[in-house]
What does this fold into?
Amino acid sequence: MKNLKQKIIALKKQKNAVILAHYYQEPEIQEIADYVGDSLGLSQEATRVEAEIILFAGVHFMAETAKILNPTKKVILPDIEAGCSLAASCPPHLFKEFIEYHPNHTVITYVNCSAEIKSLSDIVCTSSNALKIVESIPKNIPIIFAPDKNLGKYIIQKTGREMLLWDGSCVVHEAFSLDKLIELHKKHPDAKIIAHPESETHILETASYIGSTSGMINYVKSSPNDKFIVATEAGILYKMHQEIPNKILIPAPSQEDNTCACSECGFMKMNTLQKVYDCLLNEVPEITITEDVRIKALIPIERMLELS
It folds into this structure.
C-alpha cells in the first residue's frame, strides 16, 4: 500500500493533477488527497484548482459539480458506478414534471443530485448552508426543495418556512436505528449525540448538535465535552480522530447487521487506492456533461457560492 501511495503521489506531480476527496472516503484515500472536505468545501475548492486534471474521490454527482465549475479541465472518477441513493431518488424527467405542476416556485436543490437536476434549479445548497439559502428567499415566494425530504423537514422546523418537498432520502442516513442509539446512549450517558440533517427526524430529536460533516468536526473541536456519538457516515471518524485525537468518538448504530455496526455508504467505499492509481494512470473514467446542461447547472451553483 505504501508503494501504491508513492506511485499516486508521483503520478499527480507528473500529470499536473489534484485529488479532491470527501470525508466519507477510505482513510488511505484521504491520506493522499490534496484536499478533504464536505460538499460545500469541495465545491469551493474546485473553483480554485489550477491543475489540469481533477481526480474526484467521492461519488458521481460530486465529480459532476467539479466538471460544471471547471469545463476546460479533465475530471476523472475512480469508479464511474460510485453513485448516490439520494441523487438516484430524483429522476430528471419526473422532477421536471413536478416543477411544471407547481409553477411560480423557487426551486432549491440539495447538492446531492445530478447535473440535470441542478440545471432545473434556481439555486443549489449544501447541508452547511441550506438554512442560509432558504432564508435568502423572500417569504412571499413559495419554495420547492429537493431531493432530500429529511433535510427539508429539518429546514422547515428551523425556519418556519413552508416548502414543497420532493420525496427523496439517503439510505445511509435512514439506516440509523433509534432503539440501538438509545441503548448505546444508556451505556455512554456522558456522550453528546451529533447528527447530520439527512437523518430522520426521530434521530435528529436526540441530537445536541445537527450539522454538516465539517460542522460536526468544528462542534466537537470547540465543545468542552469529551465523548460523542456520531450519526453520519462512519468515514468522517478518520478525519475527526486526526483533528481531535483527545476525544472519544463512537459511530451511531445502524439497523443493518454489518461488520462495524455503523452506517457506511457502499457507493463511497467503491473507490479504492488501486482504482485511484488506475484512474490517474489511464485518465479514465472521465466525467462528461453536455454544454447546455453544464451552463444551466452552473447558474444555481454560482448563486450558492456567492451566498456562501
